[in-house]
Amino acid sequence: MFPIDRYPSLRVAYIDEVEEPNKDKTKKVNQKVYYSVLVKAAQVIYRIKLPGPAILGEGKPENQNHAIIFTRGEGLQTIDMNQDNYMEEALKMRNLLQEFLKKHDGVRYPTILGLREHIFTGSVSSLAWFMSNQETSFVTIGQRLLANPLKVRFHYGHPDVFDRLFHLTRGGISKASKVINLSEDIFAGFNSTLREGNVTHHEYIQVGKGRDVGLNQISMFEAKIANGNGEQTLSRDIYRLGHRFDYFRMLSCYFTTVGFYFSTLITVLTVYVFLYGRLYLVLSGLEEGLKNQRAIRDNKPLQVALASQSFVQIGFLMALPMLMEIGLERGFRTALSEFILMQLQLAPVFFTFSLGTKTHYYGRTLLHGGAKYRSTGRGFVVFHAKFADNYRLYSRSHFVKGIEMMILLVVYEIFGHLFNPSGFEWQKIVDDWTDWNKWISNRGGIGVPPEKSWESWWEEEQEHLRHSGKRGIVAEILLSLRFFIYQYGLVYHLSMTKKAKTKSVYGISWCVIFLILFVMKTVSVGRRRFSANFQLVFRLIKGLIFISFMSILVTLIALAHLTVQDIVLCILAFMPTGWGMLLIAQACKPVVQRAGFWGSVRTLARGFEIVIGLLLFTPVAFLAWFPFVSEFQTRMLFNQAFSRGLQISRILGGQRKDRSSRNKE
Question: Where does it sit, as one GO cellular component term (predicted)?
């Protein structure tokens, strides 16, 4: 924070909330009154009383709408808090404002002047470098192409300059309706274009921009943009633009806005359809019975097509605009060397990870709505993130889907032919495990934030279902039915069933599932009733359950010839079924609550979360046990200055520990 009197020309607009005596003398309670206030150093310039609360929709556009009344002149530039300016660039502003007097297409004067941005946070880490190159290509060569010749450039954020009079008489520069206008900036471009405005782009002036530098920041930003595009897909603005554009401009608008996200969603869904289709062929025995199986497996054109698709999807194509922009500005030799370095630093893995983030949040918004603003902070974030924080952020978008893909591939292999700084430091892994256990065990409740309790986080993860209609709930249930395919196919491949194809085998498998759920419910009730006052009774119950389980297992091995492969197949069959039942129960939450089973659903969900956490934590802990992995990660992810800083901090940290231990002695 800086003292406002240091900059006497600076003006700050804010909404002041005060309590005043109620004019109705029969009411003794004071009433809240709201004012739009403009202040400078130590003086209030304007103070305008508002009829009520000003922030009714999204916070950022509402703030812009309340502050625009204090602006003057015919041009209005919007600047973000994470932006910078340069003295030599400020001298070009007079030239830029003259662009309002020039008809760029020979018909209309500009209503929004687009500027390029200089991303200055690329040197912090490899992830910041990837993000910087991606953003640089978009705010330069990308927006230049959108403006001319495609004529579909809109407003993508700051620092564009608006024709103030044009937009004040046409609804302002920000639409602020809750949820639908989450990405308020692009709706200003939609509004300007629909009202016969003209959006241009100019490369001779630029403004500095600080982008996100941490993986969690980047992911939250991508999630917010994906949510915003989901709401744009459902909005009237895109519908009206599509109807009023000519054919070529309509296609350009589609593929440069919501079309990119929709195509990404279709690509990911195609992967699911392909894998589940192959799974059906394997489990049903059709793959072995196909006469042309060898011809299909040795089909060279099909292999080339799949290899090309993989080549594109791992991120090489997404790096092409960066390659072109760096080549145009700094030479193609530099562009080629940086491109090779990005591949060595696993840039395709980062872009593929980002692809998963976009797909998850875009698809969820299309199904259920409920998009919300996600604060990234955009601070100087280079520190170790706790495992619990990463789990909360990536559980549904990446971890669950990754485990589903892993189970698919494992089953197919059996029956067919076929980023976080200091993440690998042993002491931090130990701390993460302690923090994870504390978080997963804490009970939720009113006022308990998601960062402190798994129950609060779990309830928050289902908020999108509250905004969903009947069609969204039905779609969620239908999508969850895919998890029942594993059980239906795998139980007939158990050696103990002797390849029987009768329906009784499938019925018995459901009896086993309900028996497992009954045992889990018994343990949960016993823990709640006996763990505090009758610990011995509770331990006896758990001991009896364990002995019974081992007895049944030994009996099945001895009499039914149960094998290790059968045990693995049972796990692969029953785990997805339980997860599918859990998703359906969450979608039908009001019905489950009225039936009194919501506590059991929460217990089952906690058990699944613990299993997923263990699957994720085990390989990280194993790698952290080797010291060279941490060293390699530090040198690969950070530039030399940060690498030296991390090494020094570890040395100083070790010295502090030695001193503290000596003082204790």
Answer: 1,3-beta-D-glucan synthase complex
